[in-house]
């Protein structure tokens, strides 16, 4: 899962980033509306954690932009403004959930996973595609019921492929999904090829079919119609 945290409190930001990273979630940050808008228009996120009280305006302005631009990211509002009107305004504008501050990090994680399940997985904790099963919370991947060993990046890549099956995914989009801001300093995306190669090899070695197709000059596609 890749998320964007829009929050101007440095201590809370660091705590959230550190905690979510231990749970295998890639978390990028934006400390104000301007930075957040630039990131949201440039990159894809599964969920946006949105504070309402920001140095350069109200977070609801960003929510309006997300909905008007038809950006396909879920939004979880996290704010000390916990009045009923603020909550209703956020939900009316299209937010998926509202978590008032202060909150326990474990509850934040549970809310994020619930939103991801509803929006991406039809409400389930498992993703099943033919002989491949992915158990999200346990970070396990199976072929024909048998667990096979994947690195964290390979696990994320497999989930990204399956939840976007039959779509062509560019190398840059894959890199941004797996590494986030760190890709800005990279000269090329050759490392994506190596991760795809390793994932393909591990799936077939475990007895699964090779569903990953190379789209030359662009990237890759997880082909559900593969023989």
Give an account of the 3D structure.
The protein has helices spanning 10-22, 33-42, 59-68, 84-92, 105-120, 152-163, 171-179, 190-205, and strands at 2-6, 26-30, 47-50, 53-54, 57-58, 74-79, 97-100, 126-129, 132-135, 140-143, 146-147, 168-170, 212-215, 219-222. The protein is an alpha/beta fold. The relative contact order is 0.11. The chain contains 8 helices and 14 strands. The radius of gyration is 18 Å and the shape is elongated. The protein has 2 domains: 2-120, Rossmann fold (3-Layer(aba) Sandwich), CATH 3.40.50.2300; 126-222, Arc Repressor Mutant, subunit A. Strands 2-1-3-6-7 form a 5-stranded parallel β-sheet, with helices on both faces. A 4-stranded antiparallel β-sheet has the order 8-9-10-11, covered by helices on one side. A 3-stranded antiparallel β-sheet has the order 12-14-13. The model has no long low-confidence stretch (mean pLDDT 86). 42% of the residues lie in helices and 23% in strands.
Keywords:
42% helix, 5-stranded parallel beta sheet, Arc Repressor Mutant, subunit A, 4-stranded antiparallel beta sheet, Rossmann fold, 227 residues, alpha/beta, single chain
